Amino acid sequence: MRFGRETMDEEALRRELEHLLQQGLETEWRERAYTSEEVNRIVARLQAIRPDDYVSKLKVAGFTSQPYGAGGEIEQACETCMYFVIHRQFCELPELQIPVKPKWSCRLWRI
Ligand code: SF4
To answer: Could you tell me the superkingdom of the organism this chain comes from (predicted)?
Structure first.
């Protein structure tokens, strides 16, 4: 499924993506990327995805609509990630470029 930027603004797209995540869209969130090789593999896969194919981005990056790692590991959430643009509620990782919410998470989270 693709969403054209020209037909949907960021807020509408964020809502649509949130709906998909909350409806149980299967993403690769379980396989974490802790080594640079693992991260590079994910980034390479993201680079092969069309910029407007947001659903594939959600799947490959392993998005969740809540923080990852509560109760044990450091909690991973967009709001604490270096790629999160707070005033725009946006992920500026070049391979993602996607509207997000502060409590969402993905396996490319970096502090
Ligand atoms: S890279 Fe960071 S800001 Fe972007 S979606 Fe993943 S956790 Fe959120």
So the answer is: Bacteria
